[in-house]
């Protein structure tokens, strides 16, 4: 008897549960459809643009802002800018979430479309394009039209996709070698190397002087990926590199030669102790503490070295900067650069106040402050004079003189290919693959995009 | 059941009982379905698409993600790393925990302090354990300088950067974290065994080893089997510690099925492929769990207290 009843009761319970589930399934359906629905509405702000000023009335508005400027004084500066804005606009509340780089990427990847923040860290390029394709971003082309000319146009173009502006750059620089002048002098190197052969000679001298010549980060991968990218750019030139990104064919001489150059560098055993498991912070620490003589890094290097060094001061005026050396016989010009920087992308549901805040954020006064604090190299026109650090001035000069500027390869592309740049090149630096195999794996990854 | 269904009269009463049981099960069942069953079905659904996690789900590829996974070196590297951790746990970690449990079951001064000390690592979160050990294992940090001081500098390695060493390093740290848990479990099992049984064996002329081997060991069989089960399932799902310490690297040398799944889904933004990896991991864990319950834990689940042929 009991046995006969049991299945029915269980069935009844299941039916109840399933009906509960299907109704919850029903409620998620619109959210799944939302991205496509958002595409037409993404054009709405252009029509709504004039209402920005009008809506600055008393209606309470919350702006969610995720950024990755977790070091000091940048974190405080960002907070201060937000506070200054909300003081002038009491109806606006800005919720700041400051996350470390990797944590930010993971959190954003796990965020459902409807919960996307209004303003968030972006590097432009491929990831931003994928977000735009998915309808997660807002077309701000029209809403920033009245102040877009106050921002460096080259940097702005990185945050455009198919002619539509989705974000604003506030920092743009160029990757180069940051080196310890004292350690170079001790090794008998008087002027920074300008050719790859000179560079290898300098490595040998530094090694002989008992210091680790070059710091890389095998765990985080991207620092050495930039080194390989530069070797590729110097070998093949800007046009060839753009071609490879476009066609997805990486089985080229330039790519293979870049890999061979890495192997030649490996042969000198130039890296710091424990480089295979080092993360970027420990890379910066070894330079900041004077244990390694240089690192290839972007404009943020001095501030991270300072933060990670034992005395919290870094190298100070012992720190120097030089552009990536040229390769004899390579097609790349010495003024071709790899660069990029930080920006803020605008989420699809961002209120007009979020864009008004961006305008305030990009204001010369605020940007001058970020420049003087060394948080980045501002892209606001007219802020160049507040960059006083001679090294950052050198980076700025490099940015200004660039004949070709390639956005970081892992940012210019997205997803599988971007990750493969890191994986394939770190395998080269650890000596666990051949240049040919590395280039083949890039071609394979590009084919899956 | 048979005992309380003597006649036809009990039909309605019994159905009422089942209704009550079902009603009380309902909240748990709903939670279980929403947070376990539904995500599994969803992952299985995603795994049939090529999808970057952002746009609409519209590129149906059938079982291709599974084909790619089963043909990928990284997947098998991850599987072999999981298997390595399982085998080493069974060969080293569990016997070590059992030995400690037997020792700590004896009466001696300071016993409570030792029990506490051995259990402490288990209380730490995996992330904190991972960060602490990463710092200790950095070149020239505490661990290496200790080796140097005692004259073992020849043994110094790039503990987390050497592809041949990294899994062993991780295994030692995982064991350090979890041996206390298994020890406490086995200790509880040992304390459930009446002293008299072992004493009787000793009086009958059994040696200490014989008493352990033929009396104590079979009697803690049920606890030991649960301990092994938890260890195997834990090793299959190994993620946090590896992610914090090595991210699966260098060059996937320390990747596990869960790390590979996470990286594919979130770093490489291949949510469809990542879901396929998740489903494969789920199937592995499910098959192991079911087989283990069916063939090893059956006696325990059926309620037997002793098992002689353990």
Task: Write structural notes for this entry.
The complex is a heterodimer of chains A (449) and B (310). With 449 residues, chain A is an alpha/beta fold. Chain A folds into two domains: 56-172 and 341-381, D-Maltodextrin-Binding Protein, domain 2 (3-Layer(aba) Sandwich), CATH 3.40.190; 176-339 and 407-447, 3-Layer(aba) Sandwich (D-Maltodextrin-Binding Protein, domain 2), CATH 3.40.190. In chain A, 50% of the residues lie in helices and 13% in strands. In chain A, strands 2-1-3-13-6 form a five-stranded mixed beta sheet, covered by helices on one side. Chain A has a four-stranded mixed beta sheet with strand order 9-10-8-11. In chain A, helix 4 (74-88) links the parallel strand 1 (61-67) and strand 2. In chain A, helix 10 (222-247) runs antiparallel to helix 11 (253-266). The radius of gyration of chain A is 25 Å and the shape is globular. The relative contact order of chain A is 0.16. Chain B has 310 residues and is mainly α. Chain B has one domain (39-301): Orthogonal Bundle (MetI-like fold). Chain B has helices spanning 10-46, 64-70, 73-105, 111-123, 126-137, 142-149, 166-191, 195-203, 208-219, 221-236, 240-245, 257-267, 271-295, 298-301. In chain B, helix 2 (64-70) crosses helix 13 (271-295) and helix 3 packs parallel to helix 7. The longest helix of chain B has 37 residues, at 10-46. Chain B starts with 9 loop residues before the first helix and ends in a 9-residue tail after the last helix. In chain B, 33% of the residues are buried. Chains A and B meet through helix 1, helix 5, helix 6 and helix 18 of A and helix 1 and helix 12 of B.
Output the CATH homologous superfamily of chain B.
MetI-like
* Helix fraction bin of chain A: 40-55%
Principal-axes shape call of chain B: flat
- Overall domain count of chain B: 1
Under CATH, the topology of the largest domain in chain A can be stated as: D-Maltodextrin-Binding Protein, domain 2
Query: Uncertain segments of chain A of ≥5 residues (pLDDT<50)?
Result: 7-56
- Give a short account of the largest sheet of chain B: none
